[in-house]
Design goal:
The protein is an alpha/beta fold. It has helices at 8-13, 17-20, 35-45, 62-67, 79-86, 128-141, 211-221; strands spanning 51-54, 72-76, 94-98, 112-117, 142-153, 162-169, 172-181, 186-195, 198-207, 223-229, 243-250. 24% of the residues lie in helices and 34% in strands.
């Protein structure tokens, strides 16, 4: 997708993000964890912290995590998303850094007890090279014994390919146009909002990876798989699972 950079998604979706991807995730493409449930699980995994969230967005997860007393830092490439977060109560408790999560800037090695990438955000990294670079940075920033946590969908290339209607209302139609390249493992999409006053396009580009491929990338830099669940309530991950919560650990 031409002219699509690390900040594009956040800059264009910031105006609708909380409406579309709030606590209920009412137009999410895949199942997303409830923020309070996620926060409780992170609290149990992070020990005393601190916690780093990559792709922090509007703070859907970071704010409830910080509310539970953990020191939270967030990185996002989009200033519009960070401004959205700054306007919310409790945002002063979160340290915010503008930057690309391929190589988060301004952070000291071996600082964090847990690094989180929530709700498919890892797949916003557009290539395997970028994803490998991100995981290498995660390994560098984790304390010995620290954990790396990803929430993501299990790829099923045929599921979202083509054109689909998300909702039809009296004055509004919301649709998705999606093109999947199975060889490159990419999803190029446009969320289209059509109203009587005009149409708006919300582009997105994902490079998906299967759980086994994530394991390979993590193992390559010295992180070992500790847990994989179907959800944040520790339901077993099975062949039919459509999402996964994966936890890798850095050796002590």
């Amino acid at each position: 997708m031409e002219k699509y950079g690390p900040e594009t998604y956040g800059d264009l979706f910031a105006c609708v993000y909380d409406e579309w991807y709030g606590d209920d995730g009412n137009v999410a493409l895949t199942i997303m964890g409830n923020p309070d449930v996620v926060a409780e699980k992170i609290l149990s995994l992070a020990e005393d912290g601190p916690v780093l969230e990559l792709g922090i967005g509007s703070g859907r997860l970071a704010l409830p995590i910080a509310k539970r007393g953990l020191d939270v830092t967030g990185v996002d490439a989009s200033e519009a998303m960070l401004d959205l977060l700054r306007a919310k109560p409790g945002s002063e408790a979160v340290t915010l850094i503008k930057g690309d999560m391929v190589d988060p800037p301004g952070l000291e090695p071996e600082t964090f007890s847990l690094i989180l990438v929530g709700f498919n955000t890892f797949f916003n990294l557009p290539s395997q090279k970028d994803q490998e670079s991100c995981i290498a940075a995660v390994k560098r920033l984790l304390k010995p014994g620290g954990r790396f946590v990803i929430e993501a969908f299990v790829p099923d290339p045929k599921t979202h390919d083509g054109f689909s209607i998300r909702s039809i209302e009296v004055d509004r139609i919301l649709a998705d146009a999606v093109l999947i390249d199975e060889e490159k493992q990419t999803i190029t999409g446009q969320r289209i909002e059509m109203t009587s006053s005009g149409n708006r396009l919300f582009p997105y580009f994902l490079r998906y990876a299967y759980p086994s491929q994530l394991d390979e990338m993590a193992t390559k830099v010295g992180l070992s798989l500790e847990h994989r669940w179907e959800d944040w309530l520790d339901s077993p991950f099975v062949e039919e699972s459509v999402v996964h919560i994966s936890v890798w650990k850095k050796s002590s």
